[in-house]
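thoughts on my protein:
***
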Amino acid sequence: MNPNIDEQISNLTNDVVRMASLCEKSLDLVTKLVRDGSGSLREIEEVGESIEKASKDIGQYCMMMLLRRHPVARDLRCVSSALRIVNDLERIGNNSYDLAEVLSYVGHRHVIEKASICRMIMMVSDMLSASIDAYVGADGARARQVIDSDDMLDNAFLEAKSKLVDMIRNGEEGDEDVPDVLLAAKYLERMGDHAVNLSKQLLWSISGDEYR
């Protein structure tokens, strides 16, 4: 017996949540790598490969629904928003590996600490988790909170940038690591933008209106 459209959308939601959990795992591994070296680039790469596979599988599932079920109205928005959300999740997964790789080149840990990189990783992780919670519960209010919280991450990036530039200006020890740490902070700012996109897609799937 073929599942109806409601069952298929439920299955799609579950698949997206599982993919998001992989992104959260990737961020957790990055945090461990930065804090105490207990994570590894290979582990993060393997999770990234799982994220890419999930992205392809979900994309194929969405195309099957569009071709066979021809969903309309909110059902169509649910499928379309899932496709966009999956793209942002895949970007988060890719950026997690890029983040870990660039930080592995840093020889002076205090430069990472000065830029509050671990704090920024936690902020991104919290935004991602909240976005997925909002997605699962179709919670527009929670989604708007995530969108508003992006200002805090942007401010954290600007603060990190200012401190790192001062290191170069003052010729402080470890200033040769500033470019890599600044790039890491930029990756995190982008990952926050992708988490925000998840919430914007949820709001669109609920109302059909683009979030401004």
About this structure: The chain has seven helices and no strands. The radius of gyration is 19 Å.
